[in-house]
Specification:
InterPro entries: Cyclic_Pdiesterase. By secondary structure, this protein is an alpha+beta fold. Helix content is 38%, strand content 16%. The protein has a domain of 46 residues. Helix 1 crosses helix 2.
Length: 79
């Protein structure tokens, strides 16, 4: 069983170092980008356990896709 505090969903990885100023810029841009996203429900499954992570399908994909687009747009605004 995975401890509750470890449960999360990675929406978009940022695969390089960011400093504190860039993180603040990203958070501000992200808040603006996803401000209009309404809460949504998802169903999870099937599950694919791995050595270092458990991957799970998320349905429907629309809400998560909208969040992902917002994160990618926000990240693109930070130099």
């Amino acid at each position: 069983m995975i401890p509750e505090e470890w449960l999360h969903s990675t929406v978009q990885g940022i695969h390089h170092s960011v400093d504190d100023d860039q993180m603040d810029q990203l958070l501000n841009a992200l808040r603006a980008e996803v401000a209009g996203v309404e809460p949504f429900e998802v169903q999870l499954g099937p599950v694919w356990p791995g050595v270092t992570a458990v991957t799970v399908a998320v349905y429907p994909e629309d809400g998560m896709a909208q969040l992902n687009e917002g994160v990618r747009t926000a990240a693109g605004k930070v130099p």
